[in-house]
């Protein structure tokens, strides 16, 4: 009963938010805050308010709607395959039409001990798709380097596309300059009309966000040719990056499992504020095949997973009821 009441309240609030979306944007543009509690501009005192335009409620259009089945049967595999040094093992077992093109493994830290970042490209002539996928954080050393780099700030991405968290920025460009650029250009030349899927978990999700953005900003692909889906993605860039991203990609989803802590770091507030781009899909459950999910109307507001005040570390490794690093390293056996 409590479960049904929770969702009833949520969708009542969400419905009101969506009706007032344009008013919310106009309100914030005028220098005031939008009070969600009463759906009024500048109302005070306000229990819950929106002060950033990117958090004004908005959902993907129907042509680019989220599809749980598509993600479970296809994107989950391309994401998990990055945890295998030979992703073809995953394709052979669970998606035989997909063919590995090339893998990339580089030292993704300029200083300190060597920590590897890994990604791959693949293609599928049946589904007419090219894939870029990136592995998540591996081991305590890499995790420590990422945390320490929280204090080093951000780097400019493009003049009109904000700033990227330093560690993620460097990790992408080490991969890009380590052979990924040549390979994705070759695949684009060979399959010019194919759709591009860009996927990743954790650190790999951040790299995927940057990779998708880079190939579009540089003119290799257009935003509507790309499907970006990440799982457990940490905050990757600043507010300006999130704004540019949301104007560029009609199909972009950040999936968050229940109490996964990683999507909430680095912190949203402070000297080097970072901000999530849209669209969060929150599974506040075990992510089994019959479990519901929420398409979050705010980019990085107080609804959905940001409501959680605690964390549960196993939720970061387990998505769609599968321990992704284990499943991927085992060759993605059929379930």
Automatic annotation (TrEMBL):
Secretion signal, residue range per the UniProt entry: 1-16
Positions of the Fungal lipase-type domain:
131-268
Q: Extract the Gene3D superfamilies matched here.
A: alpha/beta hydrolase
Gene Ontology biological-process entries: lipid metabolic process
Keywords, sorted A to Z? Signal
Q: What's the protein name?
A: Fungal lipase-type domain-containing protein
